[in-house]
Amino acid sequence: MKKQNVRTVLLIVCTLTYLLIGAAIFDVLESETEKRHKEVLDGIENMVTRKYNISEDDFKIMETVVLKMEPHKAGQQWKFSGSFYYAITVLTTIGYGHSTPSTVNGKLFTMFYAIVGIPLGLVMFQSIGERLNKFSSVIIQNVKKRLNSKVTQASEINLICVVTTLSCLTIAGGATVFSRYEGWSYFDSIYYCFITLTTIGFGDMVALQTDGALDNMPEYVTFTLIFILFGLAIVAASLNLLVLRFVTMNTEDERRDEAEALQAAQGAVRLEGDVITANGSILSGQVGNHGDTISLDDETSVCSCRCSGFQKKRRRPRYTVRRSPGKISHLLPMEPLSTWNMRSEIHPPPLTPYQHRASI
């Protein structure tokens, strides 16, 4: 089995195992808390319905109103600032879900907009990531030169360290701002930044959704949009170093296998046509009318004498005869056969070093 197939099978097994382990851990961490929250909410609902004598249908209407009013607390979601925010979440595949189109035309345009925008965004962020890695490598080289380092080239480890540090600083700085403007805890702010920059976008925590931020705080809106775009460029740089390296491993293995196969094919000796040995016998290298040929390995000798044991084996060059000779009389001795046989019985002619090889 090829290395690529083995790697694919291992990736599938590892991914499924990782999913099962994650599901088990999330079950242990969250299931009991979810159960307690459900009990508390059911108790509050019963208390409110009994206190104010609200029917079940009226309570469902109140729930719907509360849920639908939540996005409007940020201001007008579909003015230019809010629409630009929504377009970013579509193009970057974050998809908070804080605002969604309600008209048929809006939903239709969202689909066509995403078909073109998502590939465009991926290519753009990938290109920015490559330029950022190039800029980081130049800085690393200059720093190494100032430190009189023997190796001044920037390695992948150096780039990964730089990009990881820059990502941590971006998340830490963004969390500080969001904690101040949104009233979140610092840990929740870090959680929001991480979920946003990895384009997971659960939507449980969304910036610019309180106190009419879209209408009343343009500087905060500008910071949020720049943070998302710049942070995604940093993440793209990380992906360019890590993920794409593993993705291209299959291609490298395929090229390596092709090179090994080509090298093995060059080492094989293929003979086409009739091969004439030193004793005058003929080895047929082409049988039939279809051009089927035979192959001789490096250890195969077409010499009739027993001198192969006294010579060091060496790699024979590749010989290829394009056509079989039409006449071979000029290659054979012109003496009568009887004279040749009598001479060979008395004493064989001395062998020269070049008679140990086949004559083609």
Automatic annotation (TrEMBL):
Broad class of where this protein is predominantly found: membrane
Domain Potassium channel stretches: 65-132, 168-243
UniProt record, GO biological process: stabilization of membrane potential
Transmembrane segments: 9-29, 78-96, 108-128, 157-178, 190-208, 220-247
GO molecular function: outward rectifier potassium channel activity; potassium ion leak channel activity
Location in the cell: Membrane
Cellular component GO terms held in the UniProt record: plasma membrane
Keyword annotations of the record: Ion channel, Ion transport, Membrane, Potassium, Potassium channel, Potassium transport, Transmembrane, Transmembrane helix, Transport
Family matches, as Pfam families: Ion_trans_2
Protein's membrane topology: Multi-pass membrane protein
Database matches in InterPro entries: 2pore_dom_K_chnl, 2pore_dom_K_chnl_TASK, K_chnl_dom
Superkingdom to which the source organism belongs: Eukaryota
Annotated PANTHER family: ACID-SENSITIVE TWO PORE DOMAIN K+ CHANNEL DTASK-6, POTASSIUM CHANNEL, SUBFAMILY K
Family: Belongs to the two pore domain potassium channel (TC 1.A.1.8) family.
Record protein name field: Two pore potassium channel protein sup-9
Species, as recorded: Ceratina calcarata
Gene that this sequence comes from: LOC108624057
